[in-house]
Write a structure and sequence with these properties.
heterodimer, A: about 80% helix, elongated
């Protein structure tokens, strides 16, 4: 996690935003007639693409890899969760947005944890 | 003759390069770059100067030869070259066809370069050639990841980004070793995707 407030808050908000956006896309596209697995994989791919679009919008201010990897990951995670849920149960707009936002939050927290683990000198070069 | 396809690609990007890469990315990477460049000493080759975005993070008073394949990039860099408190000689040159004598440099520095060099091992071997026998290589690079799902994401991104700029999935540490360098240190800056590499000429 970047400890500079602008980047920490920016990462946090952008990942929640991509989660909400992907959740809403899932709500608009998927319904209970979809096969659950198809919905999951298709929305994971859509979430990654949405993340990529978001990256191009915010990268000028927020950075390169430190934005691209998390937003694509959070988009993918949100697509997986909300896409699968929308195929199983009738999902309202607010539920989809909330579920997507929570997945985006989970996404950036996972990235922060993994980064804390990987960051620093590599022992086995 | 420089690789005309690569040269044309970077010439096209040059006028917009600062907008694309000069904001958040440079600010994020500034502390890691400053640490890496603080090792600058002796006769230095800086590879892929671009528009000179890295110059403000160089320590003052150094003697640096900087090359880039793109004449437009070198043109864009002139203001930053002139503002540097030291000596920078900027030249248009392809890393694959450098005209320096063997053993010309004490150190070589790269910054987000080997994502874009078409034949990275050949390029790194060329750097090995122009370094003095005890010469050092210092790199700030983004690479592919060893870990899923990041590895798959970087591979997917490369299909798109290679058309207009860098590859996202290079195995730069392995390439450095394959070019004959001894790796002294790898330091992950973000995940295992952004990293600094310190290596030495071996053999």
């Amino acid at each position: 996690m970047d400890h500079r407030p602008f980047f920490a808050v920016g990462d946090f908000l952008v990942n929640i935003a991509i989660g909400v956006l992907t959740g809403l896309l899932c709500w608009a596209i998927v319904d209970t007639g979809w096969n659950m697995w198809l919905a999951m994989f298709a929305m994971m791919a859509l979430g990654m693409i949405a993340g990529l679009v978001m990256f191009f919008i915010v990268s000028i201010k927020l950075g390169a890899m430190e934005v691209m990897v998390p937003v694509m990951f959070s988009g993918m995670l949100s697509g997986m969760v909300v896409g699968m849920a929308a195929a199983m149960i009738p999902l309202g707009l607010a539920d989809a947005a909330l579920m997507g936002g929570a997945s985006g939050l989970l996404g950036i927290v996972i990235i922060w944890i993994v980064n804390s683990w990987l960051r620093g000198p590599v022992k086995q070069i | 003759m420089p690789d005309s396809v690569t040269q044309a690609k970077w010439d096209r990007i040059a006028p917009r390069f600062d907008t694309m890469a000069g904001g958040g990315a440079e600010e994020r990477w500034q502390p890691a770059k400053q640490e890496l460049f603080s090792h600058m000493d002796g006769k230095i080759l800086f590879l892929a100067l671009g528009t000179g975005l890295d110059i403000p993070t160089f320590p003052t008073g150094k003697d640096i030869t900087a090359i880039d394949i793109s004449p437009r990039m070198i043109d864009e860099a002139q203001e930053r070259v002139a503002a540097y408190d030291g000596a920078i000689s900027a030249r248009v040159m392809d890393v694959h066809e450098m005209s320096f004598e063997p053993g010309s440099f004490d150190q070589v520095f790269t910054s987000c370069t080997f994502c874009s060099v078409p034949d990275p091992v050949k390029g790194l071997k060329a750097l090995h050639h122009v370094l003095k026998p005890d010469g050092k290589l210092f790199m700030f690079e983004h690479t592919g990841s060893r870990f899923y799902p990041f590895k798959a994401m970087m591979n997917a991104m490369t299909l798109l980004t290679e058309r207009f700029g860098p590859a996202m999935n290079r195995k730069t540490v392995e390439n450095v070793r394959a070019a004959g360098f001894r790796i002294d240190e790898v330091n992950n800056v973000f995940l295992d995707v952004v990293k600094t590499i310190k290596a030495a000429k071996a053999g």
